[in-house]
């Protein structure tokens, strides 16, 4: 019998299951470029952005130069990257801050994707190249004050007036709202749910920022007000005639969150790991105590499990096999896991865990928004429940 010998690779506490080995050279290169950008431009500044409740106006252009805005779309100045590569970018961006990943998700997976998937060629030519470069920022107007998990009950209404459309209504909790040069607004019409491209400055279209947030502070969140906004017929997205339009965009954005949550979890775990090996109590690093090692082991488990789940869904998406129900499982599992990791890391850091000197409390607060937006944890649980039982609980 021939003998076989192998040498096991050394364990990397930051990549315990050697997930890096599962990536292609191109995927690693993209990941590393985004990671370097986040390390150099986001991490040193984001605590200040969070504390001041702002995000730099120049950031979209910087992200455009990086090539991550609409990077998974083809043509119109977009890179045409794989779903997995886009996911890795989301992971690294959210390891910096959920607000930065949200800006990229809303730009590329909501506003740009809506125009790319459902828009006319003229709309694509007008907006997508500028949005890919970060020269124009987009937002996505679906959620309303009284219509969150049930978008079909939206009150924003569009009526025909000759060759024009007139929109009246209100949208709430809109990321990039007042920052945006263009809003994709969804409205009920006599012909079904339709989408409209509404440029900034259109008469009757105004925004109002939401203040006093304790989460996603390094992000612009706004109310959109549409007061008899008159638009030409060319402003309507011709391909979308039902809720399938906005829901398809949400599924794209949720996919990015699956990856992003793993990034936030990783950042919290790494902060706790570094802290525990240098913080000395009772004459030795706290990492030497059994209770702290148990916390670190559980965090490492959740981070690796979340990253593997995201990677598996990315491969499925690239192969054309990914269903919305799969994305629901990814978002539900990974965001809940990230919340657990953040809360555990906060305990490891003790009192230092509540300061912005460390990333943990910022990620922990941000994740309280991530678990709610793009479909609440409850709704995603019901989507999965309906898939496994064949019984829809909320319809």
TrEMBL record:
<feature type="domain" description="Acyl-CoA oxidase/dehydrogenase middle">
    <location>
        <begin position="139"/>
        <end position="229"/>
    </location>
</feature>
<keyword id="KW-0285">Flavoprotein</keyword>
<dbReference type="InterPro" id="IPR037069">
    <property type="entry name" value="AcylCoA_DH/ox_N_sf"/>
</dbReference>
<protein>
    <recommendedName>
        <fullName>glutaryl-CoA dehydrogenase (ETF)</fullName>
        <ecNumber>1.3.8.6</ecNumber>
    </recommendedName>
</protein>
<dbReference type="GO" id="GO:0046949">
    <property type="term" value="P:fatty-acyl-CoA biosynthetic process"/>
</dbReference>
<dbReference type="InterPro" id="IPR006091">
    <property type="entry name" value="Acyl-CoA_Oxase/DH_mid-dom"/>
</dbReference>
<feature type="domain" description="Acyl-CoA dehydrogenase/oxidase C-terminal">
    <location>
        <begin position="248"/>
        <end position="386"/>
    </location>
</feature>
<dbReference type="GO" id="GO:0033539">
    <property type="term" value="P:fatty acid beta-oxidation using acyl-CoA dehydrogenase"/>
</dbReference>
<dbReference type="InterPro" id="IPR046373">
    <property type="entry name" value="Acyl-CoA_Oxase/DH_mid-dom_sf"/>
</dbReference>
<dbReference type="InterPro" id="IPR036250">
    <property type="entry name" value="AcylCo_DH-like_C"/>
</dbReference>
<dbReference type="InterPro" id="IPR009100">
    <property type="entry name" value="AcylCoA_DH/oxidase_NM_dom_sf"/>
</dbReference>
<keyword id="KW-0809">Transit peptide</keyword>
<feature type="domain" description="Acyl-CoA dehydrogenase/oxidase N-terminal">
    <location>
        <begin position="24"/>
        <end position="135"/>
    </location>
</feature>
<dbReference type="GO" id="GO:0050660">
    <property type="term" value="F:flavin adenine dinucleotide binding"/>
</dbReference>
<dbReference type="InterPro" id="IPR013786">
    <property type="entry name" value="AcylCoA_DH/ox_N"/>
</dbReference>
<dbReference type="InterPro" id="IPR006089">
    <property type="entry name" value="Acyl-CoA_DH_CS"/>
</dbReference>
<dbReference type="InterPro" id="IPR009075">
    <property type="entry name" value="AcylCo_DH/oxidase_C"/>
</dbReference>
<dbReference type="Pfam" id="PF02771">
    <property type="entry name" value="Acyl-CoA_dh_N"/>
</dbReference>
<comment type="pathway">
    <text>Amino-acid metabolism; lysine degradation.</text>
</comment>
<dbReference type="GO" id="GO:0004361">
    <property type="term" value="F:glutaryl-CoA dehydrogenase activity"/>
</dbReference>
<dbReference type="GO" id="GO:0000062">
    <property type="term" value="F:fatty-acyl-CoA binding"/>
</dbReference>
<keyword id="KW-0560">Oxidoreductase</keyword>
<comment type="similarity">
    <text>Belongs to the acyl-CoA dehydrogenase family.</text>
</comment>
<dbReference type="Pfam" id="PF02770">
    <property type="entry name" value="Acyl-CoA_dh_M"/>
</dbReference>
<dbReference type="InterPro" id="IPR052033">
    <property type="entry name" value="Glutaryl-CoA_DH_mitochondrial"/>
</dbReference>
<comment type="pathway">
    <text>Amino-acid metabolism; tryptophan metabolism.</text>
</comment>
<dbReference type="Pfam" id="PF00441">
    <property type="entry name" value="Acyl-CoA_dh_1"/>
</dbReference>
<keyword id="KW-0274">FAD</keyword>
């Amino acid at each position: 019998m021939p003998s076989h010998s192998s040498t096991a690779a050394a364990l990397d506490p930051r990549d315990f299951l050697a997930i890096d080995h599962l990536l292609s050279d191109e995927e690693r290169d993209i990941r590393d470029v985004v990671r370097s950008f986040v390390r150099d431009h986001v991490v040193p500044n984001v605590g200040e952005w969070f504390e001041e409740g702002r995000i730099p106006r120049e950031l979209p252009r910087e992200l455009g130069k990086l090539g991550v805005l609409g990077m998974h779309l083809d043509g119109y100045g977009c890179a045409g990257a794989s779903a997995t590569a886009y996911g890795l970018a989301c992971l690294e961006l959210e390891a910096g801050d959920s607000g930065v990943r949200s800006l990229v998700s809303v730009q590329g997976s909501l506003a740009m994707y809506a125009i790319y998937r459902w828009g006319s060629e003229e709309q694509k030519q007008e907006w997508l190249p500028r949005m890919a470069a970060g020269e124009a920022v987009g937002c996505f107007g679906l959620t309303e004050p009284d219509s969150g998990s049930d978008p079909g009950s939206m009150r924003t209404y569009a009526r025909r007036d000759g060759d024009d459309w007139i929109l009246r209504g209100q949208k709430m909790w809109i990321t990039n709202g007042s920052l945006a040069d263009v809003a994709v607004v969804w409205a009920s019409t006599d012909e079904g749910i339709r989408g409209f491209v509404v440029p900034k400055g259109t008469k009757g279209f105004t925004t109002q920022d939401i203040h006093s947030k304790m989460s996603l502070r390094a992000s612009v969140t706004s109310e959109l007000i549409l007061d008899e906004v008159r638009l030409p017929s060319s402003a309507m997205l011709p391909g979308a005639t039902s809720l399938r339009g906005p829901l398809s965009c949400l599924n794209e954005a949720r996919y990015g969150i699956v990856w992003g949550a793993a990034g936030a979890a990783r950042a919290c775990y790494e902060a706790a790991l570094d802290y525990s090996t240098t913080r000395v109590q009772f004459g030795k690093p706290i990492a030497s105590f059994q209770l702290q090692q148990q916390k670190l082991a559980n965090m490492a488990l959740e981070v690796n499990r979340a990253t593997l789940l995201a990677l598996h869904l990315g491969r499925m998406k690239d192969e054309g096999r990914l269903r919305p129900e799969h994305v629901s499982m990814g978002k539900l599992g990974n965001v809940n896991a990230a919340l657990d990791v953040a809360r555990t890391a906060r305990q490891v850091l003790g009192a230092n865990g509540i300061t912005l000197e460390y990333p943990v409390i910022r990620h922990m607060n941000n994740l309280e928004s991530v678990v709610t937006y793009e479909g609440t944890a409850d709704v995603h649980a019901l989507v999965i429940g309906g898939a496994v039982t064949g019984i829809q609980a909320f319809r």
